[in-house]
Amino acid sequence: MLPLSLLNAAQNKPMLVELKNGETFNGHLVNCDNFMNITLREVYQTSAEGDKFWKLRECYIRGSTIKYLRVPDTLLDAVKEEQNRAREAGRSARGAHVSGAGQRGRGAPQRGRGMVRGGGPARGGRGRGRGM
Amino acid sequence: MDSLIPFTTSGSLVDCVDRKMLVVLRDGRKLQGVLRSYDQFANLVLEDTVERIYHQDVFAEVWRGLFLIRGENVVLLGEIDLDQEDEIPLRQVEWAVLEAYHKQDIADKKKREDIKSQVLYEQKGFCKEGGEGDGY
Questions:
Q1: Could you tell me which residues come within 8 angstroms of residue A7 by beta carbon, excluding any fewer than 6 positions away?
Q2: Which residues does the UniProt record annotate as the domain Sm (chain B) (predicted)?
C-alpha cells in the first residue's frame, strides 16, 4: 500500500492537511493526483499560529506545499480488506475459466521466466541479479 | 535479496517497514509510529503515531493517529529499540503541563537564530536566508 494509493483510497474521507508554512486545512477529500495535489470540500482553514479560522466551501492545494496529511485510523484496515476482497474475486474469476493446460500461476513452468530453453544453464529469472 | 535492492535512500527503508520509528520533521516536530509504507520520494505512512515534546529531562506525548508525511519534510527517520525505549532517564508528564514550556523553548530558539542570522548578514557578509519571506 503505497502512500499515494492510501491517499487515493481516502477519497470522501475527512482529513487534516498541514502545509509547510504551518497552516492547516480540515475537510473531506474530493480528489487527488500523483503530485499529491488535492481538492477538499467543506474546509476549515486555520492559520499557522492557530489564532485565525476560515471556512471554505471547496479548496485546491498544490501537492508541493504539503507537510503532512492526517487521515482516519480506520483507513488502513479498510484498504487492506478491500485489497483482499479484490484478490479473492480475481482468483475465483480466473479459477472458473482457466483450467487444465498446466495451471498458470505459482510453481508451474511458464514462458518468459528464464526456465530451461535451448539447453542453456537455468538462471534465476526474476529481475536483475548478480549475473551468476 | 540484498543485491536486488539498489542502495538508494528509499531502497534502504525496506528493513524499517512494520517497525516502530522516530521521525523528525523539518519544523522540529518529533513523531513516533509504526512505518507501514513508503515510496521513492520517502513519503511515509505512519500508523499509531504519537507526537512527543521534550523540555530538559521531561517529555510529554499526545496521540495523533495515522499520518501520511510528504518525504521532503523529513529530517530523520530512525528505528526505536523496543528493549531500550523504556530505559531512557526521562520523566513523562501531562501534555498540557509541558506545552507552554515547549512553546517557550521554540520562541527562544527562534530569537537566537534571528540574532545569529542578523550578525552573519551585517558583519560577516552572508546573504539573508529565506529571502522570499513566504515561509516555503
A1: A29, A32, A36, A38, A69, A71, B68
A2: 8-83
All structural domains of chain A: 3-75 (2.30.30.100)
Confidence band of A103 (pLDDT split at 50, 70, 90): very low
What stretches of chain A show up as alpha helix (H) in DSSP?
A: 3-9, 75-97
Residues A25-83: pLDDT tens digits? Answer: 999 999 999 999 999 999 999 999 999 999 999 999 999 999 999 999 999 988 888 88
Q: Are B68 and B49 in contact (CB under 8 A)?
A: no
The gap from C-alpha A26 to its chain's centroid, in whole angstroms, comes to 22
B4/A36 touch (CB, cutoff 8 Å), yes or no: no
Which CATH number do you get for residue B65?
A: 2.30.30.100
**Mutant choice from A68, A70, A79 vs B, greatest count of B C-beta within 10 A:** A68
Q: A131 — contact with chain B (CB < 8 Å)?
A: no
Indicate whether B31 belongs to any domain. yes
Q: Is residue B22 part of a domain?
A: yes
C-alpha cell at A77: 484496515
Residue B69 domain-assigned (yes or no): yes
Cell 520520494, located at residue? B41
Contact between A66 and B70 under an 8 Å Cβ cutoff? The reply is yes
Q: Could you tell me which of A14, A32, A13, A9 has the C-alpha nearest to residue A86?
A: A9
Query: Chain B: residue nearest A130 by CA?
Result: B3
